[in-house]
Amino acid sequence: MGSATREALAASKQVLDATGSVDLTVAAELFQVGRVVGDSLQLRSLLHDSAIPAATKSAIVERVFGDGTGETTRSLVSSLVTARWSSAEDLLEGIEDLALRASAVATGDQASIASELFAFGRVVSSDAQLELALGTKLGRPEAKGVLVSRLLDGKASPATVTILSALVQQPRGRRIGELLRHAARVVADQKGQTVATVTSAVPLGEQQLERLRSALSASYGRNLTINEVVDPAVIGGLRIQVADDVIDGSVSTRLGELRRQLAG
């Protein structure tokens, strides 16, 4: 990710935070804008081109999305396209990022959304047919969105359903697990939190989880949301992943290292 994109992402978050009224309709419209821009190389190139004046880009947004989106959505999109992005693909990522953050802002419960995204990811990873149905490039995107909505009807928050339905329709080359981990990180970040995935052989008690959360929060300097994974294969100990950081103190890993040393 280039420096221009990092600055543009930070600026778009500031614009969202300063926007008075953001509901789930705005989030859904932003996801729809992302699909339209993603499906049109010409439109994507125009909106990314730094040689085109900001006023012209805003006029393009009004002309293309004026009939299908609200004023708040178009204003947010205009702020995105008038910023400088390192690439046209980064602009597309920026639209998705803003839609995820808008989904979180609309509900005010980012931690719950992150947990539901994580839980859905576990369900998909344990069901090969479902993973294939959602991950295949052959199916119609709209059908995947409908499938997610039906699966989660009454079982997840409207914000989570909106996010998942949108992501499976526009994966941008990412596998389902990667999609959901990224989305969980963004919605948690909107609340100033970080997601930690903790894997253990047996369920941890509430006090253990709270002590772990407190220790990790102190180490990373921000609040953490913990997603717990129970996997008997780790045998004992813990495996902790925070963003790209992995702390692996599991018995299975130590045994593997010992076997490699003996074989070496």
UniProtKB/TrEMBL annotation:
GO terms for cellular component: plasma membrane; proton-transporting ATP synthase complex. It comes from Labedella populi. Keywords: ATP synthesis, Cell membrane, CF(1), Hydrogen ion transport, Hydrolase, Ion transport, Membrane, Transport. The gene is atpH. This is ATP synthase subunit delta. This protein is part of the stalk that links CF(0) to CF(1). It either transmits conformational changes from CF(0) to CF(1) or is implicated in proton conduction. It is a peripheral membrane protein. The keyword Aminoacyl-tRNA synthetase does not apply. Coiled coil: none annotated. The keyword Nucleus does not apply. One of its GO terms (molecular function) is hydrolase activity. Belongs to the ATPase delta chain family. It holds the Pfam family OSCP. InterPro entries: ATPase_OSCP/dsu (IPR000711). It is found in: Cell membrane; Membrane. Signal peptide: none annotated. Its main location: membrane.
